[in-house]
C-alpha cells in the first residue's frame, strides 16, 4: 500500500492564483482531513470528511474548499491564494467507528509559498 | 487556538538518557495521541491513550494521562540519535475523537 500520498511536494503561487492540492489514500479509510502547519504553531485542522459526499469545516477553513467524491481522494482547493496561506499542508486519514483506533496516517506534505 | 501545549519547547540530551515531554490541554477529551515528525517529513503516530486509561507502554515509550490535571507525559527511555525529531501531542475531543487538535511540539535532539 502507498498509504497517503500528496501532490505536489512544493508549489509557489502568486497572490490571487488558485490551485488544488491533491490527496489520495489506498487504505479504504472513511475519515480524511487537511491540516496546515506553521512555524511554532503545530498543526491546525482546515477541513475534514467522514465519508464520500460529506465534508465539514475545521478550525481554519477560510480561503479553502474541499470535496469528497470518492473514498480515496480528498482535494483541497485554494480559491484565491494569499501570503497568509504560505504553509506546509498535510493530509491525513483514519478509520471511523468506535471499534477502530483513532490513529491518523499522514501524507508527506505540500510546502506552499504564496508571493 | 492550541488545545495541547508541550513542555519543554526544546530538549537536548545524550544518547542513552531518558527524555520526558509534557503536554497540557484544556477541554474534555476522548483520547490523547503522540506523534513524531522528522525534519521535512509527515507525522507518524506513536501511541494513543484513551481518557479512561492512566498509563500505556509501547516499546521504549511510556505515556501517562492525568485527566484531573488535563496533562500527559511521554517518556522515551534509552534514547538514540534516531529519536531526534519533533514530538507533538494531539487531543481528540469528546464527540469528535478524530478532529485532532495539536500542540506546538517539543524539539528533541539526541546527541551521539
Largest sheet, strands/sense/barrel of chain A:
7 strands, mixed
Report the principal-axis shape of chain A: globular
In whole angstroms, how far apart are the ends of chain A?
A: 36 Å
**Largest sheet report of chain B:** 6 strands, mixed
The percentage of residues in β strands of chain A lies in: over 45%
Q: Given the structure, what is the number of helices of chain A?
A: 0
Q: Tell me the total number of β-strands of chain B.
A: 11
> What is the structural class of chain A?
mainly beta
**By helix and strand content of chain B, what is the structural category?**
mainly beta
Specify the helix fraction band of chain B: under 10%
Q: Mean pLDDT of chain A, rounded to whole units? A: 93
Coarse morphology of chain B: globular
**How much beta of chain B, percentage-wise?**
over 45%
Give the rounded overall mean pLDDT of chain B.
Answer: 91
What's the multimeric state? heterodimer
Q: What's the SSE pattern of chain A?
A: EEEEEEEEEEE
- The rounded Rg of chain A comes to 14 Å
Number of helices of chain B: 0
Which bin fits the share of residues in helices of chain A? Answer: under 10%
Strand tally of chain A is 11
Show unreliable segments of chain A: none
